[in-house]
Amino acid sequence: MFIHNKRLQYTVRVGATDPGLANLLLELFGGPQGELAAAMRYFTQAVGEEDSGRKDMLYDIATEELSHLEIIGSIVAMLNRGAKGELAENIDAQAESYRKLHGAGNDSHVTQLLYGGGPALTNSGGVPWSAAYIDTIGEPTADLRSNIAAEARAKIIYERLMNVTDDPGVRDALGFLMTREVSHQKSFEKALYSITGNFPPGKRPPSSEFAQVYYKMSQGDAPIEGPWNRGDGLRLVANPPAAADGGDGKASVVLSHAERTALDAMAQRQQSDRTVDPTTGAELGSQKK
Is 218 in contact with 241 (CB distance < 8 Å)? Predict the structure, then answer.
């Protein structure tokens, strides 16, 4: 059961309205790295989690992400508040309204006209939020790694947004939200490492002959060596074979007699005549008159 507290988790103080900045902040409201995506990712993971400790953690963080969604939405609403009233009451001439909503060349006019200045469940380009942003696969060792990466991506977006505003109140609130992403990363990483044998994900062991091999797949200069291609747990193969399994590298399938007969008939019917070189329509059209 969820109970809404009318107080925000962090106080929102906006120094001046700015529809352009509001539009950029939608990236963390309804975008792929935004707070709604995070809340839904962790909430659905919590519902299916069998470990009681991880279930509590996922519910707690999912609920906090909803509170962050409320903070971002409140900032967007405050940044849009001036333009919202002016647009609704037809205060400005059309050209002036258009100039204000465009801001510094962004698309805030789209969200203003479609959503009346409220926080829309879109990204900053107006693309609607999608459940396709959620990449949960139902394996904690894989999902926790994805969660860590998701929090890292969100932190970077917060940093970039802080770089495009000098409003101290907005920067302060964004700094708080950015910092909470770091805290969540720590929780997810500690939860991951509390699972004994968390790598590789899943139950089946990898094939030992391929699991510890790094293939240099590009031709030319010698490989730049580092821990990612040699050292503990990895062996660099500078000239990998055409087929790693030692076979001929070709695809084959066992067909029944009926399948083979039908396939041969199709191949014969569709066979190319390599001796014919007809003039094409494209060639006729390109001829000079």
Answer: no
Residue 230, domain extent = 205-242
User: Beta strands 213-215 and 235-237: pairing type?
Assistant: parallel
Number of domains in the chain: 2
Give the separation between CA 198 and CA 183, rounded to whole angstroms. Answer: 21
- 158 and 89 share a domain? yes
Q: Do residues 239 and 222 make contact, with C-beta atoms less than 8 angstroms apart?
A: no
Answer whether residue 56 is part of any domain. yes
Q: Which of 195, 83, 215 is nearest to 142 (CA)?
A: 195
Residues 40 and 170 in one domain: yes
Tokens 């399994």 locate to 245
User: In this prediction, what percent of the chain has a pLDDT beyond 70?
Assistant: 88
Are the beta carbons of 131 and 44 closer than 8 angstroms?
no
Helices within 89-204 (DSSP H only): 94-102, 108-115, 140-162, 168-193
Sequence-ordered alpha helix ranges (H) in 103-139 = 108-115
pLDDT per residue over 232-276, tens digit each? 889 999 989 889 999 999 999 999 999 999 999 999 999 999 999
Q: Are 26 and 148 found together in one domain? A: yes
- By the 8 A CB rule, do 107 and 127 touch? no
Helices 168-193 and 140-162: crossing angle in degrees, nearest 10, is 160
Which is nearest to 195 in space by CA: 262, 231, 144? Answer: 144
